[in-house]
Every structure is written in C-alpha cells, then in structure tokens.
UniProtKB/TrEMBL annotation:
Subcellular location: Secreted
Presence of keyword Signal: yes
Protein name: Tumor necrosis factor ligand superfamily member 13B isoform X1
Keyword Transcription: no
Protein's organism: Lates calcarifer (Barramundi)
GO cellular component terms, A-Z: extracellular space; membrane
Amino acid sequence: MLYNALLSITAFMFCLSLFLVHRASVLQNDFQKLQGDLILQLNQPRSEGVNGKTAKMSKTREDIKPSTFQKAQSSLKMSSRRVKREQGSCRGPTSFLQLTANTNKQPDIRGNIAVIPWTVSAQQGNAISQRENRIVVQEDGYYLVFGQVLCHCNSSITKLILHLICSSFSANDLLNSQVLFKSPSTVMGYIIRSWGSTNAETSTDLLHCLQEMPEQTNPANTCYAAGIVQLHQDDELELVIPDRPEALISMDAEWTFFGVIQLN
C-alpha cells in the first residue's frame, strides 16, 4: 500500500516538473520576444530622430553654403579694390606741366633763333618743373612732349628745309603738326630739344614741326608736334624757332603753348 502511494506521488511530481519546465520555456520565449519588440520600439524613434536631425543639419548646411560663399566673394572683391586704391595712392597723381606764352614779354632773339617767354598755366605733381624758360624733368621715365605756336611773318623768305637729327629718341617720336604761321612762299617751324644734365653744352632734338605756307595773300597754316620720349632726371626741354628771327609770334594762350605729361 505504502509502496503504491509513493509511486503515485513520484509520478505526479515528475509530471509536475515536466509541466513547469514547459511553462518556463514558454515564458522565456515570450520574454525574449517582448524584449525584442521593446528594443525595436525604443530604437525606431531614436533612429528617426537622428535621421531627422541629420537631414536638418544637411539642409542647414546647404542653405548656409551659398550665403557664406557670397560673403567670402564679396569680401575678396572689397579687399582687391582696397589694395588697388592703396597702390594708386602710393603712386601719387600723374605729373604734368603746360606753359603758355607770357603776354608781358617779347620773344628773346638769340642770333637766328627766336625763344618764346613762357609762364605756367597748368601743373600737377613733382616730377616736372620750370626753370629759366625751360621744362625740367625730375624723374627718369617716359613722357609725352607737345607744343604749338602761332606766328606771323611779314617778309617772304626762301624755303628752308629742316633736317631731323636722328637720335635714340627718334624711335619713340609720334609726329603731328599745328603752329600757325603767316608768310607767302615760306617754310616755317620749330624744334623741341633737350639738354642733358651730364652734358649741358650739347642739345638733342626731340621733335620737329615743319609747314609750308600757301601761295596767297596773308597765308596761314598750322603745325602741331607731339611725341613720346624717354627722359632722365635733370633733363631740360626747350622750344625754339630756328632761322626765323623776324617772325611775329602770337602770345595768345590758346595758340602758343608747350608742355610735358609723365606717362609712368
């Protein structure tokens, strides 16, 4: 009897153990599934948030890039303009000097050469000045030299042919004409010459102006000379009318002038 009872209890306990093991296995599977669902739910909003923030940051960078580039480009242009202004201010203004005939004086006759008395009409900078009726260059460089004279001549004189003396300046000369003279059957003109600082006794012809007067009563013609030449410090420029000491020169400022403009 006792043996049967113990056998029954043992069988019951064995069945109960199997049931409990089964339930524990089921609960473990349910727990793992629940844990997986919970982790998935927790990770999904976080991933979307990160992706959303990344998208916003990317969009913000895209919005910022054009604005930043435009600002940098504008700043670069302003810096470039400022550098150019500073360079321009360092170079200083262009120097020039223009002389007109002095109405209070008469032309100076030196043998067969007539020299016009000058007075300053326009000047800027320190590279060019006037000294004793001549234009003086203070700096080495290239200059535009120009001149114009109006004169009247009462007598008829044999035609004179002036020969241009070639020098190192001749390749740079740009010749045009306009001194107004009056004399029948006469060739008249002027010379712009320079005196070097190293050899004050010798001059170099820079520009020549030459025109023939028409065959008529009270003839008139024009002659204007201009040219680009290379000059050196302390060079002196002078405008003279050769072989016409009897010429009557107009002293009007709009007709008779002589000047130099610095090019570099």
